[in-house]
Amino acid sequence: MIRFVLSRVALVIPTFIGITLLTFAMIRLIPGDPIELLAGERGVTPERHAELRAEYGFDKPMMVQYWDYISGVVQGDLGNSIVTRQPVLNEFFALFPATVELSLCAMIFAVFIGIPVGILAAVRRGSVFDHSVMGVALTGYSMPIFWWGLLLIILFSGILQWTPVSGRISLLFYFEPVTGFMLIDSILSGQEGAFTSALSHLILPTVVLGTIPLAVIARQTRSAMLEVLNEDYVRTARAKGLAPRRVIGIHALRNALIPVITVIGLQVGVLFAGAVLTETIFSWPGIGKWLIDSISRRDYPSVQGGILLIATTIIIVNLLVDLVYGLINPRIRHQR
Amino acid sequence: MKRIIITTGLILSIAGSPAALAAKTLVYCSEGSPEGFNPSLYTSGTTFDASSRHIYDGLVQFKRGTTTLEPGLAESWSISNDGLEYTFNLRKGVKFQTTRGFRPSRDFNADDVLYSFNRQWDKNHPYHKVSGGSYEYFNGMSMPELIKDIVKVNDYTVKFVLNRPEAPMIANLGMDFASILSAEYADKMLAAGTPDKVDLEPVGTGPFQLVAYQKDAVIRYKAHPQHWQGKAPIDNLVFAITPDASVRYQKLRTGECHVMPYPNPADLDSMRSDPNIKLLQQEGLNVGYLAYNSKMPPFDNAMVRKALNMAINKEAIIEGVFQGAGKVAKNPIPPTIWSYNEATKDDPYDPAGAKAMLKEAGISNLETNIWAMPVQRPYNPNARRMAELIQADWAAIGVKANVVSYEWGEYLKRSKNEDRDGAVLLGWTGDNGDPDNFLAVLLGCDGVGGSNRAQWCHKPFEDLIQKAKTISDVNERTRLYQQAQTVFKQQAPWATIAHSVVFMPVRKEVMDYRIDPFGGHPFYGVDLQ
């Protein structure tokens, strides 16, 4: 097991180098001059433009710029944002908990609804329930996040007024962040109603962000279960007279979960991608919107640092998923 | 409705109804996060809204909702006969804000003025390089070349000595970059080894002081109780950062905010019919234009430019692009700026005349480019659509135009090239209400290869605007600028397209909100019913 973990960790190093190279090159390859963007219509004189390029180090050869960047990364310094002049690391970690909180809630929502629904659809294959679930899942998967979010806001916040429109907590509450996770901080604040308010603000963004993973997980669970339910050992278990709940819940589900867990791991990346739009619609102060703003402003240090940190998170999650395989199915662990 | 009012002190419990709350809190659904809280370091309106327009004051300021200058921290000023010395008599008894990190021991004085300007001007100032040390507005307004010296005459008198007469100097000092910061606070932070705190935890003399800021979420202010003009009618001001215009509208509808900027044009009708919303509107201090490259043939011929202008149906653009929320532009400055030349006659929409004029100029089978910006701006809500309409108008007189576009940074950069092909759609929003801010920046010879996208350097025009710069008498300046507009119209380096109308939806309980002609969103003086 230790060898397995070490081999996985060793693979991470070239991945990191690849990511730094890719982000460094790609943000510079796309057209756009950060200095012109900062200056807007007013512009800057050619002399000032050259001065600013030198200040930000853009006048150095690409290899030198990359070396400076990597040297900083190794020392835990991702540089300063061109726009706000603040350290990228500070900006990222001020916003990251909001994205993690939303992504976690969306994942819990997707897993806790997606898996049972997928199982039921498989067990009742061909029924109205099965067709409805798969139809809804396909619709959910195809739904543009922006449109879906606005639709929910107009219905539940605008017309019915059941949920707040956007934000993380009602403006009635103010407390210094302790953990950065609003649900926890609202409890720690001791303010009456703060937790309920934070929870109510999470509902719509969770549903919107969790819709695509929910659809994917439900469909994957259904097809994996259908496959497993046709296996000989399931037939044997049934023939032995085991209760259907036990056959499905213990014998079939454990094997069917392996591909589902792979999909769940992959959905972490989908969640971060979806967070970009969800955070914009719901004014959610996370890294998705920050990263998009940084790209549109050609804020090189923020884009490079942000993508590197997000990639790190995704790599860690996928590493954990690999480890969970072994726990669920010992055969996989032994094969390796 | 219950959500919009916040109680005093900002650490509050849920209240049953707004009436039950003692303190008045106005919630503004702002469009984005500020880059920081020192307006001299940045150039965006979002940052100015969050900093200079609430936390700080300037030596002079603009009267609320107008472009008229009035005394600010300087209660009066005098200009020497040669126009080279500006002496400001500072207001006494002005208090700085007391924050968690700073308790002022003295009132505002000349040292604060010197600190605020020397930081930007003097490259050896200990604060010059703090927080990135880039002062683009100060540089952009040519202040480093303009200022010869800043002298503290006594604690309440400061003299600016200039290298050349500059009539817009007072207007420049009303701009955001000229906000006055506390020298005492700066000294304290420098001694503590945390100079950047001056820019992150601001202290000013303005009507509101910063309480808390969470990036991309919320900015909280409370009224400065000892503001020299009197405490603001509201007690607290909250910026709920809401980037999407449709979501801002939903928040306004449900009462989660009182004021929202930049509504979607498609939502305006619905806003008008909502009894809880007042839709305020005002002509913007802006101009949208199409700049020909006057250095490149055939656009170096004024007759060709004039002919192409005559082929453009501007009314159709106002209808199709601005959805009626704009006004046809005939001058390069908006009508809200003094010296606007009412007598100017716009080029008539006359395709037949345009065609004949092109023929007279010896032009046939003309093919060119129309550059369409990739972004929405206050002076042009849909450049692509505008370009397509102009393309169709020109096709009707036999001119083939290709619509081209680039990423915004690239667009700004490439459109400056003196050998650029074609005509560029762009625009401008005024900074200080002075005609010089439009005419010299956008059409002056110094701007060629830069902000002068027409690459137009015309001596009779240049002489007029340069002369107007050196004269303090407003009547004389007005006469010169009106003449300059006449020359502009004859030479037609641009097709002046439109001045847009700015819309500001506010809740019905908001009282005395005035649209800022400079595009800002200041809340001093605004009250809640």
Give a quick rundown of the structure.
Chain A has 336 residues and is mostly helical.
Model description:
The complex is a heterodimer of chains A (336) and B (529). Chain A has 14 helices and no strands. Chain A has 336 residues and is mainly alpha-helical. In chain A, 40% of the residues are buried. Chain B has 529 residues and is of the alpha+beta class. In chain B, strand 4 (74-79) and strand 5 form a beta hairpin. In chain B, helix 10 packs antiparallel against helix 12 (351-360), helix 15 packs antiparallel against helix 16 (459-469) and helix 16 packs antiparallel against helix 17. Chain B is globular and about 75 Å long. At the A-B interface, helix 2, helix 3, helix 5, helix 7 and helix 12 of A face helix 3, helix 8, helix 14 and strand 16 of B.
Keywords:
A: mainly alpha; 14 helices; B: 529 residues; alpha+beta; 4-stranded mixed beta sheet
The quaternary structure here is: heterodimer
Shape of chain A: globular
Structural class of chain A: mainly alpha
Termini separation of chain B: 13 Å
As residue ranges, the low-confidence spans of chain A are: none
Give the topology.
The complex is a heterodimer of chains A (336) and B (529).
Chain A: H1 2-29, H2 34-39, H3 46-56, H4 62-74, H5 88-123, H6 128-142, H7 145-159, H8 182-189, H9 194-229, H10 232-239, H11 244-281, H12 287-296, H13 300-328, H14 330-335
Helix pairs in contact in A: 1-13, 5-6, 5-9, 5-11, 6-9, 7-9, 7-11, 8-9, 9-11, 10-11, 11-12, 11-13, 12-13
Chain B: E1 25-28, H1 45-50, E2 60-62, E3 69-71, E4 74-79, E5 85-90, H2 110-121, H3 136-140, H4 143-146, E6 147-154, E7 157-162, H5 169-173, H6 183-191, H7 197-200, E8 208-214, E9 218-223, E10 236-240, H8 245-254, H9 268-272, E11 277-283, E12 286-291, H10 302-310, H11 314-320, E13 326-328, H12 351-360, E14 367-371, H13 383-395, E15 400-404, H14 408-414, E16 423-429, H15 436-443, H16 459-469, H17 474-491, E17 494-507, E18 510-511, E19 527-528
Parallel strand pairs in B: 1-10, 14-15, 14-16
Antiparallel strand pairs in B: 2-3, 4-5, 5-7, 6-7, 8-9, 9-10, 11-17, 12-16, 12-17, 13-17, 18-19
